[in-house]
Specification:
By secondary structure, the chain is α/β, with parallel strands linked by helices. The protein is built from 15 helices and 20 strands. The chain has two domains: 256 residues, Aldehyde Dehydrogenase, Chain A, domain 1, CATH 3.40.605; 180 residues, Aldehyde Dehydrogenase, Chain A, domain 2 (3-Layer(aba) Sandwich). It binds nicotinamide-adenine-dinucleotide. The site of nicotinamide-adenine-dinucleotide has 29 residues, from helix 7 and helix 8.
Length: 476
């Protein structure tokens, strides 16, 4: 129990004016779709809006609009001109940042502290960063005059809805491509507000098209013959389907898939700092993070001390209303995701691992899961191998650096890893042996638009972010 009780500090939702229903954004306008579905708030199960569902014919219309905009306007425009639009979009995102943050927390369930301080500032930063590249592509290291690819079909998940949109759209537009983007079915609303921002920025019609809908709309977009490039972030399972669909075509593809990252704490690490990093690694965004530090590897000699300190810290985490500025852990994004987390944690207990959660009251409506750690985990357990994508940490121990590296790499994934130690030489030696796209040292879950991000093995291929992120959108 904390000594002081917090008074509620709710962020007002009055800044968001939701329409009762939204169409598809094609050719610069909102148009009717073939069907519709509801987007609900996972923290209250309240219906937020009715959203159009794209059919195959709608995918055709959107790709045609993107092709026309590419041929007639965007593909011909100078980089300096394209940059003006991207800078304008970045500035509008900053100006409307609070509105976007509140809407993101409503639709996704993530704490307002995170959408306000992490997601939305990073979204603006991505647009600023790639705006800066638009007129310098000749000097990016991809040949003297790299050309855009054409129309990009982009599909994103629900865990960082607007941030994933920015990772996809900003580099594509900077390089001169036009896009058709499909947000995830449970979190379409900030993408639709982004469509309004494109209108406000007077982006030429058809340069950005947003199709709301489920997996079938995504599949139709991937298979569309007039799409030149596919960019996907989501599960490894769907990534495999997409790789099969584009095999044998001329389409370029990048896949950002799942992860099961090791967060490795050596005995010389500053324990309090490491515990903050462990908490940030697995409880940030309810653990709905592809690069979450979901496997804690702690050196045996300090494991008791670290676990004690971690449990004490976890007892101070506040779970509840995403719009309360004191909330650390918000709602699980959907009933399906909650069922998956419950299924995997039940398997953990059946296989003999021991679960621990701090006492905390959960709201009566909505989808919630207590922050949980499992001890007594073996490498063969499902909770040590499969991505839980929730606030659940599996704790394993090791004795030597070599054992830590072996256990960390013992996964079909390879997206990220963390190293906690006082020794710089150990950071370099261990990082060098980890098969992971991103390795953090004495920190975790740090993102920056200038830094490339992507995976090894079943975590996918291609890089997003930084100069490397341009390559996926340029013919050279
Ligand atoms: P998902 O793969 O089910 O869905 C992702 C998107 O793909 C959604 O928009 C969905 O509608 C669409 N989709 C579904 N079936 C499709 C198909 N056959 N063809 C084309 N599109 C299809 O994943 P999810 O449950 O929404 O997201 C969680 C997963 O995403 C996790 O496994 C997580 O690790 C991964 N993820 C990875 C990264 C990364 O950068 N590597 C980032 C975020 C999330």
């Amino acid at each position: 129990m904390s000594i002081f009780e917090y008074a509620p500090a709710p962020e007002s939702r009055a800044i968001v004016s939701l329409k009762p229903s939204y169409g598809l954004f094609i050719g610069g306008e909102f148009v009717d779709g073939s069907g519709s579905f509801k987007s609900i708030s996972p923290s209250s199960e309240e219906v937020l809006a009715e959203v159009a569902e794209a059919s195959e014919a709608d995918v055709d219309r959107a790709v045609a609009a993107a092709r026309k905009a590419y041929e007639q306007v965007w593909g011909k425009m100078s980089g300096a001109e394209r940059a003006k639009y991207l800078f304008r979009i970045a500035r509008i995102i900053q100006e409307r940042g609070r509105e976007l943050a509140v809407l993101e927390s409503l639709d996704n369930g993530k704490p307002i502290r995170e959408s306000r301080d992490v997601d939305i500032p990073l979204v603006a930063a991505h647009f600023f960063y790639y705006a800066g590249w638009a007129d310098k592509l000749d000097h990016a290291g991809f040949g003297a005059s790299p050309r855009p690819l054409g129309v990009a079909g982009q599909i994103i998940p629900w865990n960082f809805p607007l941030l994933m949109l920015a990772w996809k759209i900003a580099p594509a537009l900077a390089c001169g491509n036009t896009v058709v983007l499909k947000p995830a079915e449970t979190t379409p609303l900030t993408a639709l507000l982004f469509a309004e921002i494109c209108q406000q920025a007077e982006l030429p019609p058809g340069v950005v098209n947003i199709l709301t809908g489920a997996g079938a709309a995504g599949a139709a977009l991937v298979a569309h013959p007039d799409v030149d490039k596919v960019a996907f972030t989501g599960s490894t399972e769907v990534g495999r389907i997409i790789a099969r669909t584009v095999a044998g075509t001329n389409k370029r593809v990048t896949l950002e898939l799942g992860g099961k990252a090791a967060n490795i704490v050596f005995e010389d690490a500053p324990v309090d700092q490491a515990v903050e990093g462990i908490v940030n690694g697995i409880f940030f965004n309810q653990g709905h993070v592809c690069c979450a530090g979901s496997r804690l590897l702690v050196q045996e000699s300090i494991s008791e001390e670290v676990l004690e300190s971690l449990k004490r810290r976890m007892s101070t985490l506040r779970v509840g209303d995403p719009l309360d500025k004191n909330t650390d852990i918000g709602a699980i994004n959907s009933a399906e995701q909650l069922a998956r987390i419950k299924e995997l944690t039940a398997a953990g207990e059946q296989e003999g691992a021991e679960a621990w959660s701090p006492p905390c009251e959960l709201p009566s409506r909505g989808f919630w899961f207590r922050p949980t750690i499992f001890t007594g985990v073996s490498q063969a357990h499902r909770i040590a191998r499969e991505e839980i994508f929730g606030p659940v940490l599996s704790v394993l121990t090791f004795r030597t650096p070599a054992e830590a590296v072996e256990k960390a790499n013992n996964t079909p994934y390879g997206l990220s890893a963390g190293i906690w130690t006082e020794k710089g030489s150990r950071i370099l030696a261990v990082a060098d042996q980890l098969r992971a796209g991103v390795v953090w040292a004495n920190t975790f879950n740090k993102f920056d638009p200038t830094s490339p991000f992507g995976g090894y093995k079943e975590s996918g291929y291609g890089r997003e972010g930084g100069r490397h992120g341009l390559e996926a959108y340029l013919a050279h």
